[in-house]
Write a structure and sequence with these properties.
Layout (H helix, E strand, L loop, with lengths): L12 H18 L8 H8 L2 H7 L13 H24 L4 E5 L6 H4 L7 E6 L1 H13 L7 E6 L6 H7 L9 E4 L8 H14 L5 E6 L9 H11 L7 H4 L8 H7 L2 E7 H7 L8 H5 L4 E7 L2
Parallel strand pairs: 1-2, 1-4, 2-3, 4-5
Antiparallel strand pairs: 5-7, 6-7
Helix pairs in contact: 1-2, 1-3, 1-4
Bound molecules: S-adenosylmethionine.
The site of S-adenosylmethionine (SAM) has 21 residues, from helix 1.
């Protein structure tokens, strides 16, 4: 269970979820659905056995198993393409600073075609940031933008740390908070968006997901699925990692704070990518997960 000052690395607690999604990106990359050559080596370097075996294709798919690597790959491809497109379009509009909040093992600073002069800030816990920096250096990877790391707990004064790293509050920025907000308590979620708004010049952009009801992780449909996946070694229990208290509706919250928000559900995003959204209990429980992007008005 979470505490106010808990910490982690990439194989424990919330940090392990970064390894999990990177493993899913590796599956999507190996199916040629996205371009991320760094996901698999990063996952192998973490050394969390089940995810290493997942990226290496060593987990057998049995007849009655719910484990479906193709489904994982499509689900993560949809998400990765959404954020990739968000950043590419932001830079096409002239934005030259990006902030990847809760960057985890996201390698966008090393793989997107950032225009010359773009600065990409990556914010996450110190152990997560340090691991990615050193592992990608050992792999010989070079950032495709000026990458600046901000190693800080988002429950602390991260805006001060971001400013100290050179963030320019007078220039528009593109912000992502991918796979993050459910791991923040409701007041920290509001504070996150308050801080982003306060740091953002007009024309800044923001992308994130919204899980309207985190009790789905305690829902019988998800618990039954989790039990079956645990049998294969996928033992991360989201129910213990997310905060279930009632939280602000992100679309409404941002709209009240001068953001013009566009949004679509994960099911709609599958359709937009030419994928059929799965038709079962677990998919139904998550069907209203929402992807949103927003532009800050003047
Ligand atoms: N955005 C990355 C991606 O999609 O690959 C990582 C997503 S992972 C599911 C969640 C990330 O949130 C982890 O990297 C974790 O360290 C980060 N995170 C959660 N709470 C945090 C906090 N209080 N401070 C800093 N990072 C946090």
């Amino acid at each position: 269970m979470r505490t106010d000052s808990d910490t982690w690395d990439l194989a424990s607690s919330v940090g392990a979820t970064a390894t999990m999604v990177a493993a899913q990106r590796a599956l999507a990359a190996s199916a040629s659905l996205i371009d991320d050559p760094f996901a698999a080596p990063l996952v192998r370097a973490v050394g969390y056995d089940v995810y290493t075996r997942l990226v290496d294709g060593q987990i057998p798919v049995t007849g009655d198993s719910e484990f479906d690597p193709d489904r994982m790959a499509r689900g993560m491809a949809v998400r990765t393409r959404f954020y990739d497109r968000f950043f590419v379009e932001a830079t096409e509009s002239g934005i030259r600073q990006a902030v990847i909040v809760a960057a985890g093992l996201d390698a966008r600073a090393y793989r997107l075609p950032w225009p010359a002069g773009t600065v990409v800030y990556e914010v996450d816990m110190p152990e997560v940031i340090d691991f990615k920096t050193s592992t990608l250096a050992k792999l010989g990877a070079e950032p495709t933008a000026e990458r600046r790391t901000v190693a800080v707990d988002l429950r602390d004064d991260w805006p001060a740390a971001l400013r100290a790293a050179g963030f320019d509050t007078d220039a528009a920025a593109a912000w992502s908070a991918e796979g993050l907000v459910v791991y923040l308590p409701p007041d920290a979620q509001d504070a996150l968006f308050d801080n982003i708004t306060a740091l953002s010049a007009a024309g800044s952009r923001l992308a994130c997901e919204f899980v309207p009801d985190t009790t789905i992780f305690a829902d019988e449909r998800w618990r039954a699925h989790h039990e079956r996946m645990s049998g294969l070694g996928f033992d991360i229990d989201f129910n213990e990692l997310v905060y279930h208290f009632e939280r602000s509706h992100i679309v409404e919250y941002l709209t009240r704070h001068r953001w013009q928000v566009s949004h679509c559900t994960v099911a709609q995003l599958h359709a937009a990518n030419g994928f059929v959204y799965p038709d079962d209990d677990v998919a139904a429980a998550f069907a209203d997960v929402t992807y949103l992007s927003a532009v800050l008005g003047g």
